[in-house]
Task: structure prediction
Amino acid sequence: MTAIALSIAGSDSGGGAGIQADLKTFSALGVYGASVITAITAQNTRGVTAVEDVSAEIVSAQMDAVFSDLDVKAVKIGMVSRRETIAAIAEGLRRFGKRAVVDPVMVATSGDALLRPDAVAALIEELLPLALVATPNLAEAALMTGRAIAEDEVEMARQAEAIMRTGAHAVLVKGGHLKGQEATDLFLDGDTLVRLPAARIETRNDHGTGCTLSAAIAAGLAKGVPLVEAVSAAKSYLHAAISAADRLEIGQGRGPVHHFHRWWED
Result:
């Protein structure tokens, strides 16, 4: 039976992040992707120039359409910039009995803010209790916990514990912005802490890394892979996609990772 995953996220007109990155990731990992679009961005490799939110009513209608027909095995949530949208998504997840991979997209790789300040509290209160796993980067974890941005793995672990106290089942704190030769993420599931290191890759082409990682986790879950294994496999997939990113030569700014690196020729 075909595994199906759903992405609830914003659209990136440049194709490197958001819904576009999620659907590419699902396809690359052998999963059928469905989508609920929460916002439309005018975006390219150099930044975001405009954002238009989709109404909460249309977000709810998209969720109803997908869940009433498709046998969705995993859900990933990305860009949700408004409190009303977050409330609609949370209500839909509860109605259909779903938990999700929650990627708290607050700031784009370019530095552009993607989450309104009044929506941060709503995300913490409404979506994190429905998170099978939350996947914040260092800046997002600090914003969610009210602490300083972590400068070491000890603080990363403390912030993961704090996020779990919001009701999230598990947390993956992404340490890609830590200094050093390794880009190490920390996964916390109850009392189990797993360190996920990878060699740091020097490249300007890292647009959509967070979207891709969370979508890859959802793809693994859709295929029935246990959570910690899905997280580890997603990390490996993303590392390979970043390693191959320079082969694409897309845009004039921070280019996307190479989702289809296994199939495309140079």
About this structure: The first helix runs from residue 18 to 28. Residues 56 and 85 are 5 Å apart (CA to CA). DSSP finds eight helices and nine strands in the chain. The first strand starts at residue 4 and ends at 12.
